[in-house]
Design a protein that fits this description.
The chain is built from three helices and no strands. Helix content is 95%, strand content 0%. The protein has a single domain, classed as Helix Hairpins, CATH 1.10.287.
């Protein structure tokens, strides 16, 4: 082969390597976009459930406050004497109803808090996967800049870790 042919073959091989790295980067970027979207959706879900939990606790406080108000009213009616006995019984029943409802609301609020924490945990996995995939893209970029395929090969470790972490977060 002549020198010009060797240079041409060398450029052709170099171009193929760049295209391979470029396609790898595009694939990783698509995975990164999907993982980022899932992470953002889970963080949004976390905020929504957290807001529901806060509203539920406020409702619990209102019911609990009414329970105490009715219980106090029943006690005041009892203090009046025999003429307040019927009123005391009515307020006592109402206080019992409010306390039972408040207890149900408390349990629901605690459940919503648990859901919030679990959603936050799942979102964290997607955040970690996002970091791994971003590092993989950076390694591919370094491979293009330095014209060293070693960085491209190492990027597969970050990609594999990102995919594994995202799948773990998805299946949790």
């Amino acid at each position: 082969m002549e020198t010009e042919e060797l240079v041409e073959v060398s450029h052709e091989a170099h171009g193929r390597k760049q295209r391979t790295v470029g396609v790898t980067m595009a694939t990783i970027a698509a995975l990164l976009a999907a993982v980022t979207l899932m992470g953002h959706r889970l963080h949004t879900e976390e905020v929504v459930v957290q807001t529901e939990a806060a509203d539920s606790w406020a409702y619990f406080q209102a019911k609990n406050g009414r329970y105490h108000m009715y219980a106090a009213d029943a006690e005041l009616a009892r203090l009046i004497g025999p003429q307040g006995a019927a009123l005391a019984e009515t307020w006592g029943k109402k206080a019992t109803e409010e306390k039972e409802q408040a207890e149900e609301i408390r349990k629901a609020s605690e459940h919503l808090e648990a859901v919030t924490k679990e959603t936050a945990r799942r979102a964290t996995f997607f955040d970690l996967a996002e970091i791994c995939l971003s590092v993989a893209i950076v390694l591919c970029s370094i491979s293009l800049l330095t014209e060293t395929m070693l960085y491209w090969r190492v990027s597969f470790a970050g990609t594999a870790a990102g995919i594994a972490i995202a799948l773990f977060g998805l299946l949790r």
